[in-house]
Amino acid sequence: MDFENESFTTINSMKPHNDGKIHNMFIPTYFGGIFCLSWLAGKIVNTTPLVFIGLYFVYLFILHIWHYQAHHDIWWVPFNKACRKYHTEHHWKTFPPDKFYGNKKAEDLKKRYENDYWYLLTSSLPAQSSLEHEGLIYLLFVVLLLIETYVIKFKTSIIVMGIIEAIVFGTIGNYLHMSYHIENHWLGKYHWYQVLRWNHYCHHLGTAKHNYAIAFFMLDELFNTTYVPVDKSD
């Protein structure tokens, strides 16, 4: 389904006042958090934090590849057909552009994200989601682990810490993504969060082949997939 030429009405309670530009304090805070967690990981396994900063951006690249293919018909990509089917339902049935906060089918899911923290921690696992939906992520992650083990020859402690890092950042990212679809979420009072949610809302508009990032938009800028629409209702 293609909404690229459709008009839409902005959810005004969600739109930040600066039309989607990141607040000045968000970027240093974001990078500061990445550095602190990477420094802690490096301290634990006695290596430079640059290893884990580098791994973090590799994880972002893997996620960008996965999200891109979830919106494109690419026959040779493993899991692509099933992933697109699952992802299409998320975009145009559960959280369509005109019901970004979800239709009635989404109510139970949203309540679980608001109240069930165990569900939050496990929601991106195949038991709660779909192996075919996230399968490419796991496949690319296995390839990365093989490269770390046999090409770069990382110590086992670094590899294990890298896996923990991926789980931590993956959990945070997954929570942010689902929270964007919860109206009056507790983070909604913060300007930086309003900006991130607005950018994700823009991802749900039109063809959805843009704004793939959840929190860091460097790769969208690099691949020219950033999109902020002009609201025709203004």
Quick overview:
The protein is built from nine helices and no strands. With 234 residues, the protein is mostly helical.
Written description of the protein model:
The protein has 234 residues and is mainly α. The chain has one domain (26-189). The protein is 57% helix and 0% strand. The protein has helices at 26-45, 50-70, 80-94, 107-115, 117-122, 131-151, 156-179, 191-203, 218-222. It is globular. Mean pLDDT is 80; it is low at 1-10.
Can you lay out the helices and strands and say which pair or pack?
Elements: H1 26-45, H2 50-70, H3 80-94, H4 107-115, H5 117-122, H6 131-151, H7 156-179, H8 191-203, H9 218-222
Helix pairs in contact: 1-2, 1-7, 2-6, 2-7, 3-6
Which key features would you list for this structure?
about 230 residues, mainly alpha, 9 helices, about 0% strand, disordered N terminus
Q: Which percent bin holds the helix content?
A: 55-70%
DSSP E strands, number: 0
Q: What oligomeric state do these chains adopt?
A: single chain
Uncertain spans? 1-10
Indicate how many domains the architecture comprises. Answer: 1
- Give the overall form: globular
What proportion strand?
under 5%
Q: What class do helices, strands and sheet pairing give?
A: mainly alpha
Order of helices and strands: HHHHHHHHH
Helices, by number, come to 9
Describe the biggest sheet? none
Mean pLDDT: 80
Distance between the termini: 26 Å
